[in-house]
Write the structure tokens for this entry.
Amino acid sequence: MTMKIFHRHWNHFWFRPVPPHALALLRILSGAVLLLYWGLKAPPQQPLLADHGLVLPYFPATSFGPLAPLFPSALTVACILFAIFYACLILFTIGLQMRLAGLAAFLLYVYYWFLSLHLFNTSFDRLFLFTLLVLALSGADRTLSFRAWRESGDARSSVPVNILPQRLLMFQITIVYLGVALQKLWLPDWQSGEILSYSMVGVWGSSAGNWVVARNWPMAFFDVSVFLIKFFELAMPFGLWIRSMQRWFMAGGVLFHVGIAILLDIWWFLVLIPAYVLFFEPEDVRSQTERWLGSPNNN
């Protein structure tokens, strides 16, 4: 009997059919972030994307036959590849041929990843890649999409999907916060506020960050700030899962990431804010979405 109960709860948590609205909202909002992120990298503004291709030093380009122009590529080929990549991101975001477009965008993202390894890709790149892949393989286009509009005549109509992709993304976000927190607890540089003050005037520093440091506040201010950052990042992975507290933690997450974007010009982690929708019950997200947008015509 105990095993049956465990099995039932296990399937309910990982595999039950749920409304796709949380995944759809994340698809739209994260897709918008990716479009902005890669729009700022568009060639020819970025020489790396404009006049270099994937370099494999141990394989001569001639061995790739018709693919040889990609190793390395000319400016025209690089621009065509980037245009395809960006078009795939647009299709993914609006939910038109989402799976094909999302997988193509994922592969091209991996291409650009290896193209620019020396530019120090960081955890937000891995987060973008994982989110893009999981959403492409999910049912994130089963509502609020061109697919839903074409199939039913109403973009608000929905078809239940498996909750597994949503759970995978939830655990990925949890691990991101927990990993960053543990890293700060362990790294010697994060044991005082100096790293925060230096960051605000360093390569990541913004005008607002420079202004804060220029106030010449005592180092104790930055020490306390670093302590609060570590405490928040360590508590966040647990607070997101506690329904009675998650709204408070989410509000704190919004302030935290907006603050980072303002003080350090590190805005890419803003993608975590729309991902908070995954931690609400899918049925509640559907109800709230229909309250905002109205019920679909087929209801």
